Amino acid sequence: MSGSAAAITNMARLLLHGVGSLLPRLSASHHLYTVTLLPHTLHRHFTYAATLLAERKYTEKHEWVAVEDNIGTIGITNYAQESLGDIVYAQLPEVDAEYEQMEECGALESVKAASELYSPVSGKVTAVNTAVEDQPSLINQSCYDEGWLFKLELTVPAEIDELMDEDAYKKFLKESEQ
Amino acid sequence: MASSIVYVQKLGRMRYLPTWEYQKIIAERVQKNVKCGKDPQHTLLLVEHQPVYTTGIREYEYSAEVETRLKATGADFHRTNRGGLITFHGPGQLIAYPIVHLKSFTSGIKWYVCALEQTIMHTLESLGVVGAHRSPHTGVWVGENKLCAIGIQGRHVTTHGLALNCNVDLQWYDHIVPCGLVDKGTTSISKELSRDVTVDEVEPYFLKSFSEIFQCQLIMIDKKIDEG
């Protein structure tokens, strides 16, 4: 595809789907991006605060949830995966199952111990990560990324506000160690 | 860390299912106590089961056919929510179900399982069993033979626990691949010491070791906890 055609395609994509469509998905905190469109006729730099990119919130059960378009992706934190040891089996919830906040929805097995999974927010399960069903060690290796566990459609979006942000969770961890 | 109190209850000979139901009642109570800021009332149940085969959460490994075959031996069969694969419980096996709030001791499942293994190692040492060792497969072994199986549930309040072979009839294990390990066997304290060693003989050594490893005070209680 030629340079100008590519630029026009990108602009169309940008207008239709927003900044997220052009950028790699990140689940970290805010970044600023500069996008240059239509290089020969119009030099405009759009700068977007990437609040479109999901921010992780945390529970006291050491699980995280990142919400985008009312769909929450859920996993366990690094503290949890370290505490559990090598995970050999993930018992994930069923798609379409509905849970209330902090309801038990599955289990992870490690060192002959089955540990409960909780739903950090109320919702209906839309997807489960079959990759971790096949390779549970992904949860240990990449608990915030490839080791995500399940997604659900939030039924009470306000619950997200009750959860801890990154700083609050770090503080919670420090206090727990004492 | 301040010494915790663990209440010990001897349940005698009991079938698997009612014992598991009882564990859940106690676990709920410990959970409630912790939530209300009360003394957790950690409880250690000691029991011997009627013959039973049980599976853990990876129960898909065992079909209905397997279940029928094992029930035909005269044993019960139950699919449970613990970790670990299939195992056998029966008379002559010391079973301990510590129902404890983990954070009151320290955090972490890994630590807890390790502490249980150390408790058994300590017990076996006191009894003069030689060659006992831990393993990446968990449990406590002598050579390639498993002497004590561990399978637990719960990252806040624990249920299920360990099964230490005292003078259990090892032939029950012939019907299964214990814990899914094809090239391993099972053994008992009696086999290792070449004499009959009963659960009653082992129990006090086990309790002493538990109290030392978990750094807790044990209080024996008689009455069963009511549901209310």
From TrEMBL, chain B:
PROSITE patterns: BPL_LPL_CATALYTIC, LIPB
Keyword Glycoprotein set for record: no
Domain BPL/LPL catalytic positions: 38-218
Ligand binding (substrate): 82-89, 149-151, 161-163
GO biological process: protein lipoylation
One Gene Ontology CC term in the entry: mitochondrion
Class of this enzyme: transferase
Reactions the enzyme catalyzes: octanoyl-[ACP] + L-lysyl-[protein] = N(6)-octanoyl-L-lysyl-[protein] + holo-[ACP] + H(+)
Pfam families: LplA-B_cat
Keywords from the named record: Acyltransferase, Mitochondrion, Transferase
Predominant subcellular localization, coarse grouping: mitochondrion
Subcellular location: Mitochondrion
Pathways involved: Protein modification; protein lipoylation via endogenous pathway; protein N(6)-(lipoyl)lysine from octanoyl-[acyl-carrier-protein]: step 1/2
Site description Lowers pKa of active site Cys, residues in chain: 146
EC number, UniProt record: 2.3.1.181
Molecular-function GO terms, alphabetical: lipoyl(octanoyl) transferase activity
Active site per database record: 179
Keyword tRNA-binding recorded: no
Protein's job: Catalyzes the transfer of endogenously produced octanoic acid from octanoyl-acyl-carrier-protein onto the lipoyl domains of lipoate-dependent enzymes. Lipoyl-ACP can also act as a substrate although octanoyl-ACP is likely to be the physiological substrate.
Family indicated by similarity: Belongs to the LipB family.
Descriptive protein name: Octanoyl-[acyl-carrier-protein]:protein N-octanoyltransferase LIPT2, mitochondrial
